[in-house]
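Tokens as discussed.
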């Protein structure tokens, strides 16, 4: 179904561009707010999924915090109105400049991934006459059952502190005067549809809590990350994940100590389905086994299919002819510039409007200017 696309209005906009269904975004945010509030959970939006200012401002209006992985994301979140105490800064390679940005803006917490990073944050905080709140990102060695490029919680990944190093890290924190141990942080991967992975995470967190209890250093914050997957194949039937079941898992399986807060960092599941990349067919080229629908959007506008071999549902918004198969490809001089092979579409011709669905996450934010192409603009349902 494509009945929520204002096709006549979209026809008048120069392609390619991102179209955001703001009503769906707000519906998603309302469900997240309702389901998470049942348990008193704290939700941060993972800014890396989409940092479009209009999107950020809308998310902030629902009371979410911001999970950032760069200094510029911290600045963008603050510019969009997120309170500094609700901004957290994660990432395995924070530069001095980025750390200082966080310190000077008095952000809520730094999620720290190594002893060297702890030492640098302490040194920079001392120079500024400040004390930085820190949470330790722990690598729980939990398999997320997702694409290997977006698995982050295994020992073979670069992220987080290994469990066997925790005692050493806590000893280091005890030596430092300008960091305050605030919490523990986990993130096992992205596009996770097997909720059993989160049960395993809860079990590992419960085990690790015993270590901190023995040291009498109970973390106030238990940040369990995000990574909840979406349905790329059926975006109309499943416009948002089952947030009710997701949050309920942590209520059932996570064993909290008195006074602890549970934090999440949701990105893809918040914004993915509200965004689509709209493109126009330039040419239809006859091939050997299939025809090519050559569109004016390319991997510079949406890199996920080239980078991850990711699937996106592709629709022709302006044709109702008989169905045929097409390789939907872009104009960029790379063989990987392909959005889908043997895609079943109604008979497609030059000028038809093509919609690439579920592109609200890791779409516009990863756009680039390869081949000196212009960056795609964003348009919003509430403005059309």
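Sequence:
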């Amino acid at each position: 179904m494509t009945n929520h696309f204002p096709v006549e209005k979209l026809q008048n906009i120069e392609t390619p561009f991102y179209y955001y269904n703001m009503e769906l975004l707000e519906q998603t945010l309302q469900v997240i707010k309702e389901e998470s509030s049942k348990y008193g959970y704290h939700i941060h939006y993972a800014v890396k999924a989409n940092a479009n200012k209009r999107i950020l401002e809308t998310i902030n209006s629902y009371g979410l915090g911001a999970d950032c992985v760069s200094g510029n994301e911290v600045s963008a979140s603050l510019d969009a109105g997120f309170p500094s105490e609700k901004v957290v800064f994660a990432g395995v390679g924070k530069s001095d400049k980025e750390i200082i940005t966080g310190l000077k803006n008095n952000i809520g917490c730094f999620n720290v991934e190594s002893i060297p990073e702890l030492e640098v944050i302490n040194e920079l905080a001392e120079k500024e006459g400040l004390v930085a709140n820190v949470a330790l990102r722990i690598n729980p060695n939990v398999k997320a059952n997702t694409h290997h490029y977006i698995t982050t919680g295994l020992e073979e990944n670069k992220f987080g502190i290994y469990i066997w190093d925790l005692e050493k890290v806590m000893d280091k924190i005890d030596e430092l005067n300008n960091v305050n141990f605030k919490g523990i942080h986990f993130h096992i991967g992205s596009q996770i549809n097997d909720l059993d992975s989160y049960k395993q995470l809860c079990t590992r967190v419960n085990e690790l809590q015993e270590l901190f209890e023995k040291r009498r250093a109970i973390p106030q914050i238990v940040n369990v990350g995000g990574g909840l997957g979406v349905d790329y194949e059926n975006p109309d039937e499943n416009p948002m994940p089952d947030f009710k079941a997701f949050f309920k898992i942590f209520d059932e399986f996570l064993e909290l100590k008195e006074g602890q807060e549970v934090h999440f960092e949701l990105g893809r599941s918040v914004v993915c389905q509200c965004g689509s990349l709209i493109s126009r067919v330039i040419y239809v080229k006859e091939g050997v086994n299939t025809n090519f629908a050559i569109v004016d959007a390319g991997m510079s506008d949406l890199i996920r299919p080239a980078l991850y071999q990711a699937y996106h549902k592709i629709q022709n918004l302006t044709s109702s002819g008989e169905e045929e198969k097409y390789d939907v490809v872009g104009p960029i001089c790379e063989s990987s510039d392909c959005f889908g092979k043997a895609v079943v579409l109604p008979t497609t011709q030059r000028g038809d409007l093509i919609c690439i669905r579920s592109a609200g996450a890791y779409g516009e934010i990863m756009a680039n200017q390869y081949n000196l192409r212009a960056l795609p603009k964003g348009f919003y349902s509430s403005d059309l």
